[in-house]
Description:
The structure holds two protein chains of two kinds. Chain A is of the alpha+beta class. Chain A has two domains: about 220 residues, PmbA/TldD superfamily (PmbA/TldD fold); about 240 residues, no CATH class. In chain A, about 20% of the residues lie in helices and about 40% in strands. Chain A contains ten helices and 24 strands. In chain A, strands 1, 2, 3, 4, 5, 6 and 7 form a seven-stranded mixed beta sheet that branches. Chain A has a six-stranded mixed beta sheet with strand order 19-18-15-8-24-21. In chain A, a hairpin with a 2-residue loop joins strand 6 and strand 7. In chain A, helix 1 runs parallel beside helix 2 and helix 3 runs parallel beside helix 5. Chain B is of the alpha+beta class. Chain B has two domains: about 200 residues, PmbA/TldD fold, CATH 3.30.2290; about 130 residues, no CATH class. In chain B, about 20% of the residues lie in helices and about 40% in strands. Chain B is built from nine helices and 18 strands. In chain B, a hairpin with a 2-residue loop joins strand 2 and strand 3. At the A-B interface, strand 1, strand 2, strand 3, helix 2 and helix 3 of A face strand 1, strand 2, strand 3, helix 2 and strand 4 of B.
Amino acid sequence: xxxxxxxxxxxxxxxxxxxxxxxxxxxxxxxxxxxxxxxxxxxxxxxxxxxxxxxxxxxxxxxxxxxxxxxxxxxxxxxxxxxxxxxxxxxxxxxxxxxxxxxxxxxxxxxxxxxxxxxxxxxxxxxxxxxxxxxxxxxxxxxxxxxxxxxxxxxxxxxxxxxxxxxxxxxxxxxxxxxxxxxxxxxxxxxxxxxxxxxxxxxxxxxxxxxxxxxxxxxxxxxxxxxxxxxxxxxxxxxxxxxxxxxxxxxxxxxxxxxxxxxxxxxxxxxxxxxxxxxxxxxxxxxxxxxxxxxxxxxxxxxxxxxxxxxxxxxxxxxxxxxxxxxxxxxxxxxxxxxxxxxxxxxxxxxxxxxxxxxxxxxxxxxxxxxxxxxxxxxxxxxxxxxxxxxxxxxxxxxxxxxxxxxxxxxxxxxxxxxxxxxxxxxxxxxxxxxxxxxxxxxxxxxxxxxxxxxxxxxxxxxxxxxxxxxxxx
Amino acid sequence: xxxxxxxxxxxxxxxxxxxxxxxxxxxxxxxxxxxxxxxxxxxxxxxxxxxxxxxxxxxxxxxxxxxxxxxxxxxxxxxxxxxxxxxxxxxxxxxxxxxxxxxxxxxxxxxxxxxxxxxxxxxxxxxxxxxxxxxxxxxxxxxxxxxxxxxxxxxxxxxxxxxxxxxxxxxxxxxxxxxxxxxxxxxxxxxxxxxxxxxxxxxxxxxxxxxxxxxxxxxxxxxxxxxxxxxxxxxxxxxxxxxxxxxxxxxxxxxxxxxxxxxxxxxxxxxxxxxxxxxxxxxxxxxxxxxxxxxxxxxxxxxxxxxxxxxxxxxxxxxxxxxxxxxxxxxxxxxxxxxxxxxxxxxxxxxxxxxxxxxxxxxxxxxxxxxxxxxxxxxxxxxxxxxxxxxxxxxxxxxxxxxxxxxxxxxxxxxxxxxxxxxxxxxxxxxxxxxxx
Lengths: 474, 437
């Protein structure tokens, strides 16, 4: 990274008739290994370095980027961004809200530096995980494991005077297509992800071996003992993974202000929340127990950051609060349109992508019950510990979660494993049905998709166990 | 070409057994719009060389973005290979000599100065269909790539690739919309009006939707919707997907997976926005019959997977795994209008998103129709619907196809139709529809 080129970009942009300009450089150092059915299939290293310039001029926005670090190319990039902004010719001029000027450096600490871990050690670690999966004496006919380490250095400057440097190391492990076959029947864990901002100590915290060993046992038990649920109204207890995906899909996404204003309408879609519609800030969306927070500052979280990609300080956002729609995720542009402040939700996954409104770590606020108490009051219901297939419509109202590990609850006790119980319901019905929330919180990792070109953004989902009273399960 | 060749020579000198360098100089432009106005213009230039290096069956890759320290990157890569492990599935890269087709590039796309005019042409076309009070959004993208490939095993080639695409979604009411796409490799064949008209036509029909009813229906899939389904078949057709059990097509080679009217092939030729003349190993690409008259003929292979399956590469090498480039379904023998007459009670689904699987081996999945959803009775559209989900099995859809239209359309859209496909209207019977309770 050549910071002088970035500083030049900003100064050159300022020399034009701009309302706002920013330049952002990103250096990434990635190592990724793929273990396919027990063998190292491929090992990739990527060192990437480039910069992007975004300009607001005449009420239009332009963004241009390059990985060619010359002053001549930088000048071309600024000219291109400026020209694209001017070409927009909008009737409604875009404005950006002025935010506090920030001059800072921040970084994520590592207990065990990724840079100090050799490639051999990384391979060894993943092979150990694979060995544990295969030592369960279960017929696992396919499995793929990937391990990605990233070291990301950023340098951000804007025309308001902010100057921010950061360094974030991350580790990500994905388990893909873990497939168990027995008696001609197949059960599968399509995808599971582990993410962490920090160093190689991630592996000590995750305990992947135990987790995936448990997963293959669950798949085997499902084949041997799994029963199909008789469709009916009953209580549903959601494990953290299910709570988390619901928070992400039917709270986090519809609360993105750019979506609310229609900017994602042709790809990720719009929101059931919109100006003049039946749902807005203050509208009831869930029971009083439903408080959903998006917080980028959760330490070591996969979606961790302290300043967003518009130079705004990150803070927890209370999206739904005590069952009411409370606060949207905002960037400078949406905040100006909606007459509020940015809450630091603007993120980009690399130098060549514009920053857009994103979630970070979205979770349900824990309640005051123990998990035992939550099960105790259920006479007949389902415990959905984890999910497999899921989806939601493009206004984030009609959603479906299909259980992967799930059990029947009879008189407060977990009994038989249940094969793919399904809840298909609306956002309102889902969150209004919550009548109990546990104290214990567990986070899960995911990659959130949005933007065009697609920007897969690291996030935490998760939360406590929660109970939904009298919902239809099939 | 010189730089790419130098990378390969240097890699060999340093001790690589095999090395392939594939350099792409890409210029990409995009205009995103919503609420009938341009939100942002985006331009990115990318200079990258993908390197695949093999040492004693250890497979390592890198992307070189900074060409000042190539030697040190290659040394690092080789060092990585030496500490990595042998991949027993590695079966080499192609050593054949190929005569490539002429690149099918349209240089005019590189010099599109103001792409917003195409957006406004599409919006105006939609307005002519629905009326002036529409809300529309979408994206117009162009790409121009110069590609240089050198393999230590023989293949060497240069390609130029171009593409222009428009995706437009039009709302006639808050919950009534239509989606149109237009994609082409040449500017002269690119017709944004067609996308705007289609989006507008669907949005107009979709007005005043009612909540849909669950049940089993005969379904006419629009080319845009079926492009999503074809892309699932294509992804599952990769030999890599078969090896890791992320496919319904394992153990089905040579078997009947669809009625005789179904032929799906991969064909990255000149009209596709993903056209190319060689794959990432330098093997020439060609039309490859994947499902031929209902029979699963082949998986998509690179040299390694081909060896495992005792066949030859099909020219589908990606950087590590084989992937389809541009799929197409052979047309049928009835028109779209005749197809509607075949349906007594069914649905016409125009678009979908969020296709997700419970189990990739069995193919149980669901997907969420969006934009126009129409109830058909006695061959005619009777009602506009909303809030349904298609919840069935991906193989069953293939097996239950009874009619394919003569009309086909090039479709490519965001993540949902990837890779692009040449897709017809398809009628499949007895498909499960569910709804939220």
